[in-house]
Structures are given as C-alpha cells and as structure tokens.
Amino acid sequence: MAHGSHHHPHHHHHHSTPDGSDRNIGIAFWLNLIFAVIELIGGMWTQSLAIVSDALHDFGDALSLGLGYILQRISKRGPSENYSYGLRRLSLLSAVLSGVVISVGAIYILIEGYQRFFEPREPFGPGMAALAVVGIAVNGFSAWKLSRGHTQNEQMLKWHLIEDVLGWVAVLIGSGFIWVFNWKWMDPLLAMGISAFVLINVFRGLVKTVNLFLQANPNPEGLKLFRDQVEAMNNIEEVHDVHFWSLDGVRHVLSLHAVLIDLSKIETTKDDIRSLSHLLGDCHITIETESLDEHCKSDCEQSEPC
Under a CB-based contact definition with an 8 Å cutoff, are residues 84 and 76 in contact? Predict the structure, then answer.
C-alpha cells in the first residue's frame, strides 16, 4: 500500500455565535423556583391539595432546571487533554436526566388524577383561577425562552414548563367548572389527559437523546445528500468510511475517506468538500485522502467493508 500518498487528516470548524442556552435555562430556573414558593403559599391559602402538590412538582422542575443549567455551563468548556471534544455531551446527559424526572412526575400525576377522580375535593375556585393565570404567564414565558434554543437539553427542559403551562390551563378550566357547575371531576380528568400528552412527547425526546448518546446519525437525509454531492465531484472516485454523529444535538462530528483521481488537487478538493458541509449544520470535519491505488486495507479488511 502506498503509504506515501496518505495524508494526515485536516480539521475544519464552523464557528457559531454563543446560543445563550445556559442563559435561557437560568432564567427559566429562577422564574420556576420563585413561582414554586408563591404557589406553595397560595395552595395553603386556597386549601387546594392539587396546587400544593403542583408546587412540590415545580420544586422538582426547578431542581431539574438547576441541574440542566449547571451541566449546560460545564458543557461549554473547550477541549482538553482528557476530553478532546470538550464536554458538550453533558448537555445530552442533562436531557436524559430531565426526561426521566418529567416522566416520573407525569406518571405520578396520572396515578394521583385517577385516585382523585373517584375522591374529588372542593378547593377555593376563584383563588385557584387567580393562581392559574399567574402560572400560565410565568411558565409560558419560560417555555417560550427555552423553545428558542436548539440544544437537546433545552428542548427536553422545555417540556417541564409546557407540562406546567398545560397543568395550569387545566386548573383554570377545572376551577371554572367547579365554581359554576360543581363538576369536581373535571380537574383530575384534565390533569390525566395533559400528563399522558406530556409523557408521550417526553418519551419521543428521550428516544432521540438516547440515540444521540449511541452516536446515531443525527441527520440521515442531510448526510445522504452530502455524500451524493461529494461523490459527484470531478476529482472524487469514491467516498467510504463515513462516520457522522453529534456531540449535543447541535454540533456534529464528521469523518470520511475520499479516493482522489488527481492527488495534485488535494487542497482544492478538500475545500470543495468542506463547502458542502453546510448541508449538515455545525460540523467538526476530518477528511482523509487516498490515491486510486490505495484502499484503506489496514483497517477495513479486518472488520467490515468500508
């Protein structure tokens, strides 16, 4: 094998402006924590066990948001001797932990709602409605802040707040029916429906996050388009040994071997390949070139075909 024609990998970064993810999570954390305290006091005032229980749930949300904030901050540290890609995958870890916490909370509310459906309570309706309006405003704003983010961590934490917003909508609607028609069963019924909706969406997010942890392809369609366009280049005979995975759902890693027809055009060909990487978003790219006589026999033939 012609080792002399083998070239060292070249790395290329697409730099982006800070996404403000930690700031978004920090704002959501403080809003959630402050409102949880207000909610606990309000629940005692209205004698509403539902609101007191939701206050405890919000303290759990605040804990998840706080953990998410810390891990998101740490994940922005740059590469080191021990972590050559940095610690961005901590953002995925936070997303998994948050998803588990949300799922446990949603299952608890499902069980609690089922039990309360047969043993309805009669809290102070007007007080519940007033707290619900504040809860919708606070959690709605926090959810909106996180929904503007792109990391998997933000998208998962967003469901904490969407769950709370929908829960307060249920409290608002339920308090109205309880107040006007004395339909005490409305509150647990709505709570169960909302918890089921949140649980389904969080499960989907968890599946996606776990797949990213397992280094699944974050953009199959984009990678296929990228590879087709690279293989259609005039100086490319073939592309093989392509690996594409994500650090945190936003920043990705791509490596490939390209067999060149004319080795004198290495740099130009590499530049052309890099220019196509916009199809895959923000990537760290490693390109290894080979001649027509060379076919990465050292690695590929010992395992599976490239």
Answer: no
Is-contact 158 99, C-beta < 8 A?
A: no
Q: What is the pLDDT of residues 50-76, one digit of tens each?
A: 676 677 667 767 877 788 788 778 877
Structure tokens, 72:
């998101």
Residues with Cβ within 8 Å of residue 129, at least 6 apart in sequence: 171, 172, 175, 176, 179
Q: What is the pLDDT of residues 14-55, one digit of tens each?
A: 433 345 677 778 888 888 888 888 888 887 787 666 676 677
How many CA atoms within 13 Å lie on the side-chain side of 109? Answer: 33
Q: Are 264 and 243 in contact (CB under 8 A)?
A: no
Whether residue 257 contacts residue 285, with contact meaning beta carbons closer than 8 Å, is answered with no
What is the DSSP secondary-structure string of 284-295? EEEEEEE-TT--
Bridge partners (DSSP) listed for residue 255:
243, 286
β-bridge pairing 282-290 and 251-260: parallel
Least confident of 50-54, 147-151, 239-243, 300-304: 300-304
Q: What is the 3-state secondary structure (H, E, C) of 109-120?
A: HHHHHHHHHHCC
Which amino acid is present at 139?
A: N
